[in-house]
Amino acid sequence: MPAMRWSWIALVLAGCGGQSANSGPPLTMDNLARACENAYACIAPPIDAPTLPGCLRNLDDVDSVVSIYRPDQVHCLAAAGTDCAAVTACIGAGFRSCSPDGQRCEGNEVIDCHGGRTLAVDCRGGLWFPDDSTCVQGTRPGCGVATCADGAPRTCHGTRLVRCVEGVSQEIDCAQAGATCVADGTSAGCGGTGAACAASRCDGNRLILCLSGHETIYDCAAMLRGGSCVPGGSTGFSCGFGPDCGGTATCAGGTAQLCVLGGQASVDCLASGFVSCAAGSCLPASLP
Length: 288
Hints:
By secondary structure, this protein is of the alpha+beta class. The protein has helices at 8-12, 29-43, 52-57, 71-80, 84-91, 220-223; strands at residues 93-97, 102-106, 109-114, 117-122, 134-137, 141-144, 146-147, 155-157, 160-165, 168-173, 180-183, 188-191, 201-203, 206-211, 214-219, 228-231, 237-240, 249-252, 255-260, 263-268, 276-278, 281-283. The strands form 8 sheets. A 4-stranded antiparallel β-sheet has the order 1-4-3-2. A 4-stranded antiparallel β-sheet has the order 7-10-9-8, with no helix packed on it. A 3-stranded antiparallel β-sheet has the order 13-14-15.
C-alpha cells in the first residue's frame, strides 16, 4: 500500500482541537493506548511513516479516529484487540473487497477502490459524522449533507459547525465537546456556552476552556481516571495525565511505549495477539 493511498486517511490525522465532556466512565491511559493501537493496526499501519503519534496528538480533537469526545467508541476499540471486523464496527470504517477501482458513493458509504480493496467509510454515524450524514459526490466523494462551493465560509446549523471540504458540506456537532457553534458574521467555530472569557485556565482539577470568547468547564478527573488540569494543548491548558510529552510512540522489542496525554503507557503487542511492533504501532499478521 503506497503512502496515503486512501486519501481520506490524511484528513483524519488532523483535527480541530478542543477538549471533551465525558458523561460515561473515566477513560484510562490503557483504554486510549489500546484504542489507538487497535484502530490503526486495522486502518493505517506504518508502511511509509509512523501513524501512532498522529493518533496520540489528536486524542482531544472532535474529528479524529480516536477521540476522548467519544468515550464509548474508545472503550469499544480498546476491547476489539486484533479483530479488524470488531474495529470496523466500532468506528464505522474498514477494509473490504470492491470492484471496479475508482472513487464513488455506494449508498451511505465512501468507496475509494484500489486493486480490488477499499477503506469504506460509513458516513451515517461512522467516525465523527452524525447519523443524518451520507455520502455526497463533491470534488470527490465525502461524508456530508450536501454539495457546496469550495471556499464557502464556515457557518452554524444549531450546535453543528458546517464546513465545506472538497465540495462536500460536512457537519461536526460541537455538542460532542459540551460546546455549541458560534458564528461571528464571517466564519464560525465551536464555542463555549458559559461566561465571557479571554483565556483558558485551570481551576484546581477543572479545566476552564475559553472557546470563541466563552467558557466551557470540564472536570478532568471525571473525563480521565487519574487525570488533572495541566499546562499544554492548543489553548495553553488541557486535561491530561501529566506534562506534555509530545505524543511520542516507540517500540522496545515487541512492546509499544506511548505518550498518552502526558502519561507514559505501554502495550505488549505480542501478548495482545499482534506479531510485532514497528514505529510504536502493533502490527497484525497480515496488513490491510
